[in-house]
Amino acid sequence: EVLVDRLNPARTLSHHPLVQVAVSWHNVPGPADSPAAGLSLGDLEVTRLPVDTHTARMDLSFSLSERFTETGEAQGISGTVEFRTDVYDAATVAAIVARLHRVLTAATTDPQRPVSDVDLLGVDEHAHLDRVGNRVALSGLGPGAESVPELFGVHVRRIPDAMALTHGDRSMTYRELDDAANRLAHRLTDRGAGPGHSVAVLLDRSIDAVIAMLAILKTGAAYLPLDPAHPDERIRFMLADSAPIAAVTSTALRPRLAGARIPVITPDDTDLAEQQSIPLSRASADDVAYVIYTSGTTGTPKGVAISHRNLAHLAASTPPELGPHPVWTQCHSYGFDFSVWEIWAALLGGGRLVIVDEDTAASPPDFHELLVREQVSVLTQ
Question: Per CATH, which fold does 148-373 belong to?
Answer without folding.
Answer: Rossmann fold (3.40.50)
